[in-house]
Every structure is written in structure tokens, then in C-alpha cells.
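Internal tracking record. Fields below are filled automatically when a chain is submitted to the structure queue. Please do not edit lines marked as system-generated. If the sequence contains nonstandard residues, flag them in the REMARKS field before resubmitting.
Queue: standard
Priority: normal
Entity type: single polypeptide chain
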Amino acid sequence: MTSYQSKLSASLYALLSISFWGVSFVSTKALLVKLDPFSIIVLRFGIGALFLFVLLLIQRSRMLVSIKYFPHLIILGILGVFVHQVLQATALLTINASSAGWLISLSPIFTVILSILFLYEKMNMTKIIGMVLAITGVLLVTTTRSGQSLQITINIGLFLMILSTLNWAVYSVLLKSLKIPYPPLLVTFYMSLIGMALTTPFIIRNSGWESITQLTHTDWAHLLFLGIFVSGIAYWYWGKALAVLEASKVSMFLYLEPVSTLIAAVLLLQEKVLFISVTGGIIIIIGVIIVNGQLVPMLFSRFKNKRP
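SYSTEM-GENERATED OUTPUT FOLLOWS
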């Protein structure tokens, strides 16, 4: 496979991942009516781990990994599964799915900040402008209309959702930099297993299994989607994309995730979409694109080419 074909395949993997993740907010929001966040995480990653295990058996892949890489897998499992999913599921208790989808677009900005702090990349005016725009967009997304007046709605859900985007930036950078010498499928399997194991004590403490008997066929359909496509395939494909492309380039696909969430929220949850929220979401996307240095150079190049 040529370099171009590899990059194209990696881009498709990333696109599929964010499409599944975008819809995942809607499925999680629907399940929170009957299940607590910890029960959802245990069930979805249990289903995901089982699905990945079956794939490994079909491919006759080697299951064992060197003990020296277990700390790496534990760290990734804690950040990418346990912490990340607890933050998002808890956030969805107080914010709607479409707002969560818009806010996830902040993750690439945090990736840039981490690069500045730990990789000593320089901050420039372009990045500052992009960050200011993105923050403005967040303020608009978190704004609701009450009567004829406009007010800012601040709750713990918004804070947790933004915190989860920072966590995801750390996870993506680590997944790329740790360079674990095993196939993404095997790494994702162990991460799912670790994440499920860490969350299981909470479902036992909360007696979460008692709510499982109340689930309908629709609820189980949401769980199977979250387990197989979101926890299994999406995490696996994200790892495959990061194995080929730079972390910053893969993070660019997160800009499209809010679109997937918004469409699913409207169709499946009948959520009302405020014009100001859509405007704020668009501003967030423009801001994060500018932060990554994609929009300004492109516009400048086009202007320069049009000059006589």
C-alpha cells in the first residue's frame, strides 16, 4: 500500500470514529433515563471488549503482551476509557447531546496547548485569534434563551464536558507518543477490559444491575451500538488512524463530530436546536481550525493567487 493510500485509509478510519462518537452522545443521553453513568460504561465496554476478543480470535492474533507495556495500557485505559467516559456520561445528566457534541470540538485546542507546554511549540497571533474565537463560540453554545432575554447557563455538566476534551487531548497525545508495538486492535481490547474493570466496583456499590431488567429492546439497541461501534470499532479505528497520521492531523476530524451529534440529536431525541447554539458551534469549529493553522494560510494563499 502506498503512502497516499495509507493516509487515505487512516483518514477514513478517523472519519468513521468521529461519526460513531458523535451519535454516542445521543445513545448515552437516552440510556441515562434508566441507567446511571457507571452502569452504562460497564455494559458498553463489556460488550466492546467481548466484540474485540471475538475479532482477535477470528484473526488468530496473539493475545499476550509484554509486562513492561502494562503500565502504558493501564494509563491509556484510565484516561481513554474510565476518566473520559465518566466525565462525559455525568456531563450528559445536565446538558443536552447537541451541546456536548459542539463542546468536544475544543479538544484540538487543548492538543495545541499541550504541545506548547510539553513540546515547546511557539504561540503566535494566529493561534491566539483561533482560541479567542473558540472561547466565544463556547459562550454562545452555553447560552439559552429565556423569554426575550439572553442568559448564560452555567452548570457542572459544561465544566465536566470541557474537562473531558482536555482529557481526550492528553489521551491522543499519549497513544501516539507511547508507541506500543502491538496492533491497535489488541491495544483497544486491553484498554476496554481495563476501563470496564475499573468501573465495575461503582456499579456494584450503586446496585446498578437492578436497573438492567427494566431495559427495553430500544435501550439494548443503544447499548449494543455503544459497545460494538463506539467502544469497540471507533476506539480501534482511532488507534489505526494515529498509527499512520500525526496526532494533530487526526484531531482535525473532531471538528466534524458536532455535525454528527446534532443530526442524531434532532432525529432521535427531537432536541430543539437554537440558532445561537448553531452559530456558536460554527464559531468553535472556525476557531479550532485557525488554531491548527489551516484556515488562515489557506485564505492567504487564495488571495495571493488571485493577485495580478
